[in-house]
Design a protein that fits this description.
Blueprint (H helix, E strand, L loop, with lengths): L2 H23 L1 H8 L3 H4 L1 H20 L5 H21 L3 H28 L6 H9 L1 H20 L1 H22 L23 H20 L1 H7 L6 H45 L4 H15 L2 H13 L3 H30 L4 H18 L10
Amino acid sequence: MRTPALLALTTAAFVTVLTEALPAGVLPGMSAGLGVGESAAGQAVTIYALGTALTAIPLSAATSTWRRKRLLLTGVAGFAVANTVTALSADYPLTMVARFVAGVAAGVVWALLAGYARRLAPAGREGKAIAIVMAGIPLALSLGIPAGTFLGGLLGWRSAFGVMSAIALVLLVWIAAGVPDHPGQPRGGRLPVLRTLTVPGVAPVLVVTLVFVLAHTVLYTYVAAFLGHAGLGGSVDVVLLVFGIASMAGIGIVGARIDRALRRLTILSTVLVAVAAALMLAGSPALIYVAVALWGLGWGGVPTLLQTAAGNAGGEAADNAQAMLVTLWNAAMAAGGVAGGILLDTSGPAVFPWTLLVLLVPVLAVVVGARRHGFPQQS
C-alpha cells in the first residue's frame, strides 16, 4: 500500500471538508469583514454545497477521459484560488462566487478520492485504503475547525483562509511529486450517468447515502440548539470534541475490518447512531455525552463505508457512482440544514433525536434488504 500517496489524498479530503466548514468557525468576523449579517455570511457554507451538488455529475462526465492526476491537481488548485480570493475579498458577491468555485473544486476532488485510493491499494485492501483517505473528514471537523477558529480569533478570519490556501499549495507539490498518475476512461467507454442507476446495488447505496446524511445533518447542524435545550449550552465545544474523538475511533475500526465486513459494519453504524438518538431522548446530560460518543463512533466510518459500497457496486461505472454519491451527499446536507431550521422553528430542538430515529428506519431497512447487491453478504 502506497502510504505517502494515500496521506496526500487524506490531506485533500481534509482541505475539502475544512474549506467547506471553516466559515462556521469564523462567522462573526467574516460577517463584520464583509459588511453583512451573520445569516448572510452563513450562506458561504450553503453556496459551497450547491457548487458541489450542481456540478459533480456533469464535471465527472466531462472530464472522464482526463488523466486522474491532472484532474486531481486541477481540483486542489481550485481550492488554492478560491481560498485566496476569499481571504482577500471585501466584496460579498465576489466572496460568494469564490465559495461556489470552491464547491466546484470539491465536487471534482470528492469524485476522485475513493477511486484513486482503490487503485493505490493491493487487492483485498481497497476498503482500508479508502478509510485512510476518509480520515481527513473527522480530522478536519475535530482538529481543523477548532484550529481555524482559534487562528481567526487571534489574527483575523482572513488569516484562516490564507493558511488554507498555503496548505493547498503545499498539497499541489506533494501530489505532483508523490502521487502516481492513472489514465481516465477511454473516449466512448463510459456508461451514461443515468444508466448507472440500473447497475445492481448502486441505487440502494445512493438511497442510504441520501437518507443517512440527511438524518445526520438535521441534528449536527443544530446540535448547539439541542444541547442548549438539554442544559449543555455552555459545553458545545467539549461535546463536539467528544464527537470528533469518537469519529476517529469509528473510522479506525471500519478501516481495520471493512474489506471483510462492509455489510455488518454498515448495519452496526446505523444501529449505533439510532441508539445514540434514543439516549438523547432521555435528556440527561451524562447520557447525552454517552450518546454523542456513540453517534461519533457510528458516524465516523460512514463516509468510508458508503464510498466503498458505491465503488464495489458500480464496478466499471464506479466513477459515475461516486459522482452521484457526492451529489446526493451535498444535496442531503443542504436539505438537512433547511429541514432542521424548519423543525427548530415549528417544533423546537427536542424533535431532533426523534427525526434522526425516524429517518434511520428506512436506512436500516435498505441496508438489510440489499444483501445481494449494494451491501452484500461477505464470507
